[in-house]
Amino acid sequence: MIDTARQLTVVRDEPVDGVAAVLTVVADFTFDRHGKTGCGSALARHLAREAVDVHRFDAEGNGLAGFGGRWGAAVWESMADEAVAVVRAAASRAASGTPRVLLGIGIGGVLAVRAAADMDARSDPYAPDGLVLVGADLVQSVRFVVTGLASVRGGEQVLPSRIFRERERLNPRDDLAELEIPVLGVVAAGDARFAGEANDLSRFGARVQVVDGVGDLLGNDDAIRALAHTILHWTDDELVRER
Fold first, then answer.
1. Model's pTM, two decimal places?
2. Considering its fold, how many domains does the chain have in total?
3. Assigned domain for 52 exists
4. What is the pLDDT of residues 183-226, one digit of tens each?
């Protein structure tokens, strides 16, 4: 599944008093496990205070691993495999019956959906019980106007154009529609990407929750707190009470 030469750095935000759920975060592709201005770390801390055991990581070539990334033959498949590995490691530490949640942020949602689909196809005993997509539109049938090398994150990360060519061949919305686990899509009311029906993930089986009064779900501490509350409420409603 994963080249043994690869190494993943996983940060764990462990609750102090018991574990109600275990959650793996797949970061936005152009950011790292800490998130833009530390928003990923802030979200993890909010969740950990509510008994969620949170695991965050950087896929090879992405985020903090981007500077020395070894781009393999199938980058997106490799990153999805790495997400699977972290999900399995996180779930293996949890007590039997603990709800397992996979969360994808932004473009990381593409990898989260792929990982969930792969684990489901293999009937993996550590497969997630639910999937949360934060600000993820999962576009497909798209063409990126990129040739040569593309600079992202203000020049901090440089991606070869084949990364975009590989992404164009992925169909994350189709994968989402095939999932048999509960899926929550969280979007900000002020995010223009979700203003129309084109990016409405409810058409592909997700339950969509709109957070009012914010344009960026991870833009400030109040927005992050509201996002954490939304995730916690959904987890309790969809995953805990069903057990």
1. 0.90
2. 1
3. yes
4. 999 999 999 989 888 889 999 999 999 999 889 999 899 999 99
Gap between the Cα atoms of 71 and 78, Å rounded: 9
Is position 1 within any domain?
Answer: no
Residue 4 lies in a domain: no
For residues 214 and 190, is the Cβ–Cβ distance under 8 A?
yes
Q: Is residue 5 part of a domain?
A: no
| CA separation for the pair 116, 128 (Å, rounded) | 7
**H-helix or E-strand containing 183?**
strand 183-188
Sign of CA dihedral 61, 5, 109, 50: negative
Q: Which two tokens stand for residue 49?
A: 């205070």
Name the residue range of residue 48's domain: 10-240
pLDDT digits (tens, 9 = 90+) for 17-44: 889 999 999 988 766 566 666 788 899 9
